[in-house]
Amino acid sequence: MNWLKPSWQAVLALLLCLVALALGAMSKPEAAALADPAASFDYPYFGIKTPMIVLGMLAGLISMLRISELAEAVVLFVGAHLVAWMLISGITGFEGTALAPYFLLLAAAWLLAWRCVAVLSGLRPMEKGVRMALRLIIPAIFGAWILIIWEAVTRGAGIPFILLPPPSAIGARIASSLPVLGADVRQTIFKAVIFGYVVGSGAGFLVAIAADRVPFLRRGLLPIGNMVSALPIIGVAPIMVMWFGFDWPSKAAVVIIMTFFPMLVNTVAGLAASGHMERDLMRTYASGYWPTLLKLRLPAAAPFIFNALKINSTLALIGAIVAEFFGTPVVGMGFRISTEVGRMNIDMVWAEIAVAALAGSVFYGVVALVERAVTFWHPSVRGG
Amino acid sequence: MTGTSPAVVSASKLGLTFQTNDGPVQALSNVDLTIGKGEFVSFIGPSGCGKTTLLRVIADLEKPTSGTISVNGMTPEQAREKRAYGYVFQAAALFPWRTIERNVALPLEIIGLSRVEQAERIRRTMELVNLSGFEKKYPWQLSGGMQQRASIARALAFDADLLLMDEPFGALDEIVRDHLNEQLLELWARTNKTICFVTHSIPEAVYLSTRIVVMSPRPGRVSDVIESTLPKERPLDIRETPEFLAIAARVRDGLRAGHSYDD
Asked: Which of A136, A266, A269, A344 has the highest local Cβ count within 10 Å?
């Protein structure tokens, strides 16, 4: 057995393929055609059912041979994605008719992809470029399979469009409504979120320094700041709309309220983070309040401040979108979500959600990159 | 003792009582001490004997509750404001976001020296502690011994005549410690600074000092002051000479005497 290295994913995938083969019909039209051979041959996977299953089994078998890990990963990748592609494209026109073998084959393909990711994760390449590529490929395969399973299950089982549209429909919707989405992003993110984030985080930072400098502020302001952060956004948003009007300033105000407190608390904690010895050191230099703040306490507080910036990057987006539910001009991501849901255009809602998720990730990623550059010295960044 | 040279540190009837949750703790009691210019004085004693507290009082990091103390003829606070001393802590306490060079420059920036002057002082002190070539490294890229040398460079950078060192080599291994002790003596001979050095190692105290102040705990007080008869020139193997061993024995006796009522 020297030429064989079994993996449980591949073995299970093989078994699932065999069961699928044994169960026969992949879809209801095929079952009907088998029951009555005189009927039409117009059913899914006519002629490609067996090649598809054999392809899956072949990929599983080859992957278990003693071949190089890279070759194994390539075989698995090609096999899993070919089978998935044939499955999804074959069901077109017959949505909702899939039988058990369809889902068994989907599971088998998913197991092959799982094995592929497992093999790739085990690779320890020397070159920096390859390592970098692997760092991108592994999560990409992972994410792709969430979409593949989503697509295959919604279409195979015929899940109602209103409950969960397949990702391909959401993608088509995004592609066809780019101008609308663009206008919404401009209104919600480039106006309300960015402005509110900068002002809210900035105010939290400045108030934290003021509270640090002036003891009575620390005693008086921190509890009030705490209370403000406990205000329910659902309750505050309509009031902000009354105060600042329907356009983006009221949304920015909600974002300011939401981002202020995390920054205040984190900065106050960060300013207390420098060690006794370091502070004594500054004292031996007869260093005043501001030099000590700038040269010791703020750099030491940087990891805390960036934590707040990262938390705020997602809070700001949530705040601005939710605030738009309470009155807005006829543009904006929250407005679009609330109206399109009422018009049963669920794919548009999902399109906005996808855009919001993408924007949120980019926002967070940018803050995290700046953090890495600024706090390069921190053990969590330099690694040890 | 030091003849005509003026006292750098002079304390009389110095006492310090900390108010803690368990009631007052007398950290220092009735300490009389005069340190002359150019001396190398070690403070030795078991933990809790107030040796670090005494150093911190000299540095104005703690305020005495009784008695008087003067540093360079001023109160410790005035001396601190005038940057009369450099202080080396138990750990290097380098700022990880600054290179070694910028760490050494830290006090110079606070004093407000020009960039040119800073560069010159950095170069000189880095040479003094044998760290030339490591200017652009970050502290976490250096070994513990090198970090501690960098912190000594930082304390030397602004040319104070008094160097206060609080167990600076306590966390380092024996070999590195010997090496740094040698370098410290060499540096002391070259710069003619006054050094106050807290340690709990008898050989280290005897090897380095011109005078050894033995302290005992509860309350912290000076129990013996030993003048060293060793020559100023001290190779490492001086530690095997009978003279050295005799002084070490006296220090040990002093430490034991302080302990005796305790057990």
From this structure: A266
Across the interface, do A280 and B85 touch by the CB < 8 Å criterion? no
* pLDDT digits 0-9 by tens, A204-257: 999 999 988 888 888 887 788 778 778 888 888 889 988 998 888 999 999 999
Give the number of beta-carbon pairs within 8 Å between A and B.
54
Q: Are residues B138 and B174 in the same domain?
A: no
Q: Does residue B109 belong to the interface with chain A, where contact is any CB pair within 8 Å? A: yes
Please check whether residue B81 touches A, CB under 8 A. Answer: yes
- Our CA-based measurement puts residue B212 at a distance from the nearest CA of chain A, in whole angstroms, of 25
Distance CA A218, CA A211 (A): 4
Is B89 a member of any domain? no
A381: contact with B, CB 8 A cutoff? no
Residue A289 at interface with chain B, using a CB cutoff of 8 Å: no
Considering CB atoms only, which of A283, A377, A378 is closest to B61?
A283
Q: Does B74 touch chain A (CB under 8 A)?
A: no
Could you tell me which residues come within 8 angstroms of residue B92 by beta carbon, excluding any fewer than 6 positions away? B139, B144, B147, B148, B150, B151
Residues B36 and B99 grouped into a single domain: no
- Please state, as a whole number, how many other Cβ atoms lie within 10 Å of the Cβ of residue A305: 23
Q: Model-level pTM greater than 0.90?
A: no
Helix (H) or strand (E) holding B16: strand B7-20
For B253, the token pair is: 């006796």
ipTM reported for the complex, 2 dp: 0.86
**B78 and B99 assigned to the same domain:** no
DSSP string, A247-305: SHHHHHHHHHHHHHHHHHHHHHHHHT-S-HHHHHHHHHTT--HHHHIIIIIHHHHHHHH
Residue B106 is part of which domain span? 95-159
Last residue of a domain, one of B159, B187, B212: B159
The CATH number of whichever domain residue B260 belongs to comes to 3.40.50.300
- Which residue, B159, B185, B209, sits at the end of a domain? B159
Instruction: Express as a percent the part of chain A with pLDDT over 70.
Output: 98
Q: Do the chains contact at A284 and B81, CB–CB below 8 Å? A: no
Domains and CATH numbers, chain A: 8-159 (no CATH), 174-382 (1.10.3720.10)
Residues of B in contact with A291 (CB under 8 A): 109-110
